[in-house]
Amino acid sequence: MAIDLHAHTVFSDGTDTPAQAMARALEVGVTTLAIVDHDTTAGWEAAQAQRPDGLTLVRGTELSTHVVVDGRRYSIHLLAYLFDPATAGIAAELARLRSDRLQRGLAIVDRMVAAGLPISQEEVLAIAGGAPVGRPHIGRALMARGLVGSVTEAFVSYLSPRGPYYVSKADTPFADAVALVRAAGGVPVIAHSRSRGAAAVTDDAFFDRAVDAGLLGIEVDHPDHGEAARADLRRIASRHRLIMTGSSDYHGLNKTLRLGQEATQADQLAAIVAGSSGATAVLGPEA
Q: Would you state the pLDDT for residue 169?
């Protein structure tokens, strides 16, 4: 009866359809799954229509946000659960983010083509299949050309922020994103805050400001978090009475992560449901 509140599908940078992700979830004992594709709600309809019996579905998105500290931008991801996608503010921002993702992805490809790498915009767009273009799609194109053995290898080499092909995204300021989610009746939960660049800035002072801005939860148990990070995040969550979640961050074949390898407690999911306006409901036998 595991609860996994962070999974991606082909509607962003995963390799499973919503139906496949939900079926796989049930196969491994996950009975509640959140599909939170990057900067889009495009997969919501398919997930709702294809939800198998026995699975509870939580719909959301993972927003690309940033903070600026000492003049430097740091990427912060924000999980937004059970918000109303028709709310004007968040709908407009999601559209802007998707447009920027497309232009940014094509700009990365253009840099690679100019350097002589044998990939093309058309190839990457075909791999994305209409989803917001992300670096994993470019990584799969590099794999198809035999330049790397995995998407993970592509991120370490060709797609690294320190590499010559990287182009940054025009992410939403973190506090603005939290406000947009709350205005749409949703529940904002910071994702994997102690992984990658985010770890450098997500200290106590950051969370003090985030809570003041309206943050309601922290993804504590995540594959990128060690025990010390988890303990510290639990301390911060307890101090601010924040919701604590656990999630796999599943991406299908794009990452070596297993559905259900991290889980959320039932009372924490109940707190997410209670914290939303109810405009977007949890769907399933436990709802």
A: 86
